[in-house]
C-alpha cells in the first residue's frame, strides 16, 4: 500500500468515525479492537476526529477502550475529555454568520439546528418554535429526543455562539438548497454536505462551520500540547470533512468507500469500512 523508510515512526493515529471506524451497520469490529490494542502496546495515541456531536462521540469511545479519552468532535469545532467531560477547545461561529445561516436554511424549507457545548446531562441542540411543524417530522430529531430543546423566535437570545449550524433532511431538499446557502455565506463559513445513512438511505446533512473549525486545526492544537509533529500522525477518513486532516498528516489513508475527492487527498487508499479498511491500513504501517 505505502512504502515507508524503516526509521519512519508514527506516534498518533487520527481516526474518523462514521464510514471509517464504524461499519455500515454502525458496529466496531473485534478485528479493529485488536488492532487498536496493539497500537496501545506500542504507545501510539489513538484519537477520534469526528463530525459527530459530543453525545454520540462518547458512545463510540465507550466501545474503544484503547482510544484516547480526548476527542475532536463536531467537525473540529470542539475538543472534549470523556473522563470528566471537560471542554478543552472551541471554535464557534460568529453570531452574524450563524443568524444568516439559519435564515438561508429556512428559505430552503429546512430546519436549522444550532449546536452548543453542553454536558451530557443537558440538551445540546436548539430548534426554533416557529420550525416546530417541520422539525417534529425529521427522522434525525425523532431519533435523538433528549438532545434538543425549543427556543422562541428565529434565533436564540443568548451571547453564547453556536458551534455549528446544520440541518438533516431528504437529499433532494438538501441539494436544492445547497447552492443558495453556499452563495449566501461565501467565505464566511465552510459548507459541507455529507450522507447520513444511519437516519435513512436518502438523508443528507448540510453543515455550516466557522472557516477555522476543521478536524485538522483542532487536532493540531492537541499536537502542540502533546509535542507531536504533524509528520508523526497517521490519519484515516472517508468524507469531505476529513480532507484537511488527510492532506496535513504525515501519512493518510482514504477508506475504500470514500468519494474520489477524498481519495485524491490521501496518500493511499485502504479497503472499505465493511472490509476491515482501518485494520488493513494500520497493519501496513505498524506491522511491517
Describe the sheet with the most strands.
Answer: 6 strands, mixed
Compute the separation of the termini in Å: 11 Å
Kindly provide the radius of gyration, computed on alpha-carbon positions and rounded to a whole number of angstroms: 19 Å
Q: What's the number of helices? A: 10
Write down the secondary-structure element order. Answer: EHEHEEEHEEHHEEHEEHEHEHEH
Number of strands: 14
**Arithmetic mean pLDDT:** 95
Shape annotation:
globular
State the share of residues found in helices, binned by percent: 25-40%
Keywords:
288 residues, alpha/beta, Rossmann fold, Hypothetical Protein, Haloacid Dehalogenase-like Hydrolase, Chain: A, domain 2, 2 domains, 6-stranded mixed sheet, 5-stranded parallel sheet, 10 helices, 14 strands, 32% helix, globular
Task: Please give a structural write-up.
The structure is a single chain. The chain has 288 residues and is of the alpha/beta class. 32% of the residues lie in helices and 22% in strands. Helix 1 packs parallel to helix 10 and helix 3 packs across helix 6 (171-185). It is globular. The model has no long low-confidence stretch (mean pLDDT 95).
